[in-house]
Design brief:
single chain, three-stranded antiparallel beta sheet, 12 helices
Amino acid sequence: MYYSFEPKDLTISQVHQFLLSGVAPRPIAFVSTISDNGVNNLAPFSFFNAFGANPPMVAFSAARRGTNGTLKDTYHNLKANGECVIHSVSHNILEQINLASCDYPADVDEFKKAGFTPMDSDLVKPKRIKESFFHMECKLFQMIELGEENGSGNLAICKVVKFHINEGIITDGKILPDSIDLVGRNGQEFYTRASGNSIFEVRKPGGIKGIGFDNMPAILLNSNVLTANNIAQLALVNSIPNYDYAFAVIKVVQTIEFSKEIFENKLRLNIYQEMAGMVKSILISNSEKNYVKNCIEQTIKSALSKNDVDFAWNFAIWAFEIK
């Protein structure tokens, strides 16, 4: 069952909130511009993303105000001088950015209002923000005006001419999520913090052409424990692993005396190899079949939660004798 609407039947506010809530979380562009009078302007925009690396292009929408259709200072400044600096939004400056989003008059320096330290840019006139970890000096490539009504977007496509990255967030030449600690925008007054327990990895297909759901063994496909995401993880292999190899791998897993309480504790901690050892003991003892099947599937699921697809497959093949 779905609620279905056409935009023409909704208010601008309703359309806006559906977009903000459904297209989320969105990265936030914190944009620095400068007026013809030399006044620094700052504004956050969450209709923002990157759209190519050669040349490096990013875009954000400096939309018209939903209440009266007027244009924002960022739009006017970009149209006037064609330059900006786009900063990433890390958790350490979120409240300052929220303060800078106030609708101040055009002659107010928002660096001062929000307590930011201005830094000279190298290739553009707008200032950089010292407190931000990631800066992109940009030249306006194209401004695409998407309408003239209240809430209409103005897509500012910008070419990045210089990056500035705080050395504290780079490890081995890479920016790690916990270091940059980015914040994304959701609907209403909600945000998402992209660090800590919120971060997880998804294995890329690379050169793999997955066997797909249609070639998965029925006993796994019909599991009451494995989710569709879990099945997709297992289906991302070129072929089902070799039966003899799987038996050899699981053979060396130490058999551990089974305890329901201990098994559930291992499950909570995702210690799947010890879970497998305990399952070996109850398979040997011919315990109740449905319970054993559940333990097998929980062990597979636990291995997949750690992205150990190889172990998950080998254990599944051994436990269910998939050939």
